[in-house]
Write a structure and sequence with these properties.
The chain has helices at about 5-10, 15-50, 85-90, 130-140, 200-210, 240-250, 255-300, 300-310, 315-345, 350-355, 365-395, 400-405, and strands at about 55-60, 80-85, 95-105, 120, 155-160, 170, 175-180, 195, 225, 225-230, 250-255. The protein is α+β, with helices and mostly antiparallel strands and about 400 residues long.
Length: about 400
């Protein structure tokens, strides 16, 4: 009786394969869907933490339709400029504790550049958003705990989605820059960016004009900025300070961090609900089919089960044998489903995020293990309940009557 479940599974390969396929699909939906949902929520948390600034100030008219509220989900590189005097004007507004300027540029799709990327320059002396992120990534990767996130001349740090080739360099407008590091994923458009200091940016910007690959006739990097990041003083109200900046500084658009994250949050929650509904539908349908299939199998095998009872096996042993078959096949199917969905989701994280229109950041190992354990437990429970329910109906019939059927 102990070996009977395995012998039955081997003895009916077609039936076993069909059940294995069904349970694998259920596990793919459960584990893969769970990873996507966790990744969506992880993306929102990282988007909030990586933003780093309380307020972002950009030109009122960028000439490109740039929307700062969608900046963290925007995938197409963009650049625009406003007078550098805006930095001091913003710093003078009451409630502002610290400001830092950033400069943007988009690399071109031509032989001058490795790829079309968003280039972001920061001021090492005042930056409080990018350098802490660089330092955190380097420290987490086993770097020096005292790393302050500094990036040297003709060096860049790239986002998580930027391809790093074996040469360890990146070509931008004919200049070969050394890649000093790669940032951890954030689940936002920041993962597609290249970060550098102002000195390096000036060199790259001049090269873009020399190659006629810049839509501006000419600008001096010392005279313009693309955005001003703002950190507020303790107790300052972001909305009130944003309104004050908009009133006192002409020609700018002022966006609070909550305003930037709000759009992402709506997209993420919508994506999470969609995936949850799909997983629930697949699991509900799969569970119904599983119950039906096991009911049909037990009904088909009623003479076999009756024979075991007639030969002296008690009904409890027969029941455990049937339940063991169902648990074994569901457990194997769940393991295969977890492996398949895990490989697919981890390999195509970026593509899945783009398809859902959100940032997707996979959770840590602990969450992965818990999700896998929950998937296995659900598969085993579904199998046990299905087989047990079917057997309960079958046990209501006298085995002797079953054996006499057809005589």
């Amino acid at each position: 009786m102990r070996t009977l479940p395995w012998r039955n599974l081997r003895g009916y390969p077609a039936r076993t394969a069909a059940l294995l396929t069904l349970t694998t699909l259920m596990a793919v939906a459960a584990f893969g869907g769970g990873l996507v949902i966790q990744g969506v929520r992880q993306g929102l948390g990282l988007a909030q933490s990586r933003l780093g600034a309380d307020i972002l100030v950009t030109p009122e008219d960028t000439g490109t339709g740039f929307n700062p509220q969608q900046a963290l989900t925007q995938t197409e590189p963009d650049y625009f400029y406003m007078d550098a005097g805006v930095v001091e004007q913003v710093a003078a507004v009451e409630g502002v504790e610290q400001v830092s300027a950033q400069l943007y540029l988009a690399s071109a799709k031509s032989s001058c550049c490795s790829a079309r990327l968003q280039l972001i320059a920061f001021d090492p002396a005042t930056d409080f958003t990018i350098q802490p992120w660089i330092a955190e990534t380097r420290s987490g990767a086993g770097g020096s705990g005292g790393d302050d996130g500094a990036v040297g001349a003709m060096e860049v740090v790239v986002g998580a989605n930027v391809t790093v080739y074996s040469s360890g360099t990146l070509t931008l407008f004919g200049h070969e820059l050394r890649i000093a590091g790669q940032l951890a994923p954030s689940g936002t458009s920041l993962d597609n960016a290249v970060y550098m200091n102002r000195e390096t940016f000036e060199t790259v910007l001049k090269a873009s004009f020399e190659k006629n690959l810049n839509r501006y006739g000419y600008v001096d990097a010392d005279d313009v900025v693309s955005a001003v990041t703002v950190r507020l003083a303790d107790g300052a109200d972001p909305d009130a300070v944003a309104a004050a900046i908009a009133a006192q500084v002409e020609g700018v658009t002022v966006t609070t961090a909550s305003g930037m994250v709000a759009g992402i949050a709506l997209s993420l929650e919508s994506a999470a609900r969609t995936v949850t509904v799909l997983v629930a539908l697949i699991w509900g349908l799969g569970l119904a089919v599983t119950v039906l299939v096991h009911a049909l199998l037990v009904h088909e095998r009623r003479r076999e089960l009756a024979t075991l009872t007639a030969l002296g096996a008690d009904r409890g042993a027969v029941g455990r044998s049937v339940v063991a078959e169902a648990v074994i096949i569901n457990l194997l199917g769940a393991l295969v489903g977890i492996l398949v969905s895990g490989v697919v989701v981890t390999s195509f994280t970026t593509a899945i995020g783009q398809a859902l229109g959100v940032g997707l950041v996979l959770p840590g190992v602990g969450v992965l293990v818990l999700t896998a354990a929950a998937t296995l437990a659900g598969a085993v429970l579904a199998a046990a309940l299905s087989a047990a329910t079917s057997l309960r109906l079958t046990h209501r019939v006298d085995p002797s009557l079953v054996l006499k059927e057809g005589e």
